[in-house]
């Protein structure tokens, strides 16, 4: 009777929610990606291509360091430590630790190395593709098994038959709804912006604001002589004029610049002299 109570207490103490186990895997991936990004930022100061051929080795050293300071030292990944869970120490003797290192660090390095340096070996690439497809299938089967049993979320855990234990006993995971509420408000605001912004004519609004802030009204000009030379630039994009057109003033526009602005804003004005016209004509070189 007493032993059954002790076993029940042990089960409750070592119980780890499924969400914590899945979140620990996600946290491990985020930590790895974050460190890789930091390493890439550091390597950017070096001459281009200096260490690009050593990318598999750099990732291998990084993964080995993460494994050494997490699994080997604390019997838990950094993601698991953040969620106060760990592996059972008695389930990870030296032989299993070495096998865990082989499966989680050495084999990924061998695969990345083969994909990086053996690109001309078609048979090797086909074998790698078959192995990756098989791993995807096995991971899917193991995931459904994990959802049913609540233990061993990763394929490595299943192969090595190692379980998680909670470092905080049967402490429940607290949920903060303030973060969820903030996300819902922000998502609603973004949806509102996405719905209303397309109805705002940015070009017309910019023109009206510019006219409102102008101190003196620009005089409306009659047709002036348009000068077109080899150095003439478009009054809108300031690039060499393509298919030169004008709208009545002396300034020359590319056809697409002028037509696009008039389609976007019926009251488009020359952005240099503010001349306004609803029509435009091709510049004719005499």
UniProtKB/TrEMBL annotation:
GO molecular function, one term: ubiquitin protein ligase activity
Keyword Plastid: no
Family to which this protein belongs: Belongs to the pex2/pex10/pex12 family.
Main location: membrane
Domain RING-type: 234-274
Catalytic activity, EC: 2.3.2.36
Pathway where it operates: Protein modification; protein ubiquitination
GO CC, any one term: peroxisomal membrane
Protein name (Swiss-Prot/TrEMBL): RING-type E3 ubiquitin transferase (cysteine targeting)
């Amino acid at each position: 009777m007493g032993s059954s109570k002790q076993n029940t207490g042990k089960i409750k103490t070592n119980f780890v929610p499924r969400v914590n186990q899945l979140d620990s895997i996600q946290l491990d991936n985020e930590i790895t990606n974050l460190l890789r990004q930091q390493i890439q930022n550091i390597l950017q100061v070096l001459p281009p291509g200096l260490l690009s051929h050593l990318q598999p080795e750099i990732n291998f050293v990084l993964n080995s360091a993460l494994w050494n300071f997490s699994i080997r030292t604390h019997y838990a990944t950094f993601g698991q430590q953040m969620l106060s869970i760990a592996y059972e120490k008695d389930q990870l003797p030296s032989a299993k630790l070495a096998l865990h290192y082989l499966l989680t660090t050495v084999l990924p390095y061998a695969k990345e190395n083969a994909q990086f340096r053996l690109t001309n070996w078609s048979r090797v690439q086909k074998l790698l593709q078959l192995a990756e497809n098989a791993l995807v299938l096995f991971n899917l089967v193991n995931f459904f098994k994990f959802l049913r049993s609540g233990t061993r979320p990763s394929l490595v855990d299943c192969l090595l038959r190692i379980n998680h234990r909670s470092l905080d006993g049967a402490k429940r995971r607290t949920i903060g709804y303030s973060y969820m509420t903030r996300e819902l408000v922000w998502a609603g605001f973004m949806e509102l912006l996405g719905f209303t912004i397309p109805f705002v004519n940015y070009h017309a609004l910019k023109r009206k604001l510019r006219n409102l802030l102008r101190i003196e009204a620009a005089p409306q000009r009659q047709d002036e002589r348009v000068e077109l030379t080899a150095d003439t630039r478009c009054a809108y994009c300031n690039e060499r004029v393509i298919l030169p057109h004008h709208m009545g003033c002396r300034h020359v526009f590319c056809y697409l610049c002028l037509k696009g602005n008039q389609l976007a804003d019926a009251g488009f004005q020359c952005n240099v002299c503010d001349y306004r016209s609803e029509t435009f004509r091709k510049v004719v070189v005499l």
